[in-house]
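Write out this protein's structure.
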Amino acid sequence: MATFSEWLLSMQLTNANLNKEFATQVVDQLKSAGYEALWAGGCVRDFLLGRQPDDFDVATSAHPEQVRDVFGRRRTLAVGASFGVIVVLGSKDAGQIEVATFRTDGEYLDGRHPESVTFGSAKEDAQRRDFTINGMFYDPVAEQILDFVGGEDDLKRRVIRAIGCPRDRFGEDKLRMLRAIRFTSTLNFELDEATATAVSELASEIHAVSAERITHELKKMQRNRNRHRAISMIHQLGLLPHILPELTSVADDEARWTTLLQALEFLEDASFELACGLLLSGTPSRVQKICKRLKMSNAENDHIAALAEHRDALDGARGFSKSRLKRLLVNPWASDLIALTRSCKTARNEEVADIDFAEEFLRSTPAEVIDPKPLIHGGDLMNAGLQPGPEFKVVLEQIRDAQLDETIQTRDEALKLLSEVIEGLST
């Protein structure tokens, strides 16, 4: 019988294949109506790399109103008609396809959006895109690649290169500097020299990009296996002081920087929170301040701050009482803490026996043993004659520790211990 994970993966692949079929149908229907239509951008890159595209985009010679005429008003949404973008709706499983009219862009005065667009040809449309590997088109009906920018050659050479003048492309949208690093690191390509030089020269202008967009790119980088390379490139190309200035002192110390990058590399499949927990050190308040500046969610903020606060909490875990270890491992970030500590110790060539012990304890101990239902509550303390105050929490914690240490296992044992503790307080 298939596991839930296997079932979920099969469903995702089924939906992805249906989305691909729908994208092909959209192209075929537009071509049958007399228009040029092609897959465009990142889906072509991923398709040629043998990867499953996250989604499919279609570019066409048809203008927005013509696209709506082809597919009907009920099956289309004019979400970005002023930029030539129409969404064509498929079935629930097939999803939807963005169909954009071939265009050229006017000036980018805000560093992100063109002031105007002019509908044009596929060749003109390719020139406005960011990198050559994202500037190709593919006709899924004729099974033919259209490449006006040398993207296919760069894909074979494993190179990320800006289309045309790199400074112009980055001037249109400063975030493209981070995207250059993201594609280079996640695909394990090399960054074209002229493109890299432009990033270095324009690095300070990343301030024009909102924190939300920067963090979105950082998430994509840090969820990838080559996250260490992304951070290294951010430093090498001069972006670090403008994105994560808190790391500049570490980067200036070659030994510490090398250890940090190695620790990032040793992480396996990591969440963004885990990667940030490794990158950002200091007091929880300091870490939370950084997270807030980067516009992370409250959940991400709390998760990362907890990892920072407990970074060394597993040192000596083999000698911990059960209650101390359980209080650590009951937290939702426990697995990330184990992974973080292991990667740091491995990078420093330190033994990981304590981490092995904690990981095995977490793996082999049932959740109801790590976090059993409390045997007593505050009402029991008041019934025993203890009034709410400073000692109230201390007594509850003492009884809870005894339960977690498994020295008491029943409510009667807990109430007996409670009487003994309260009696001790009065003597």
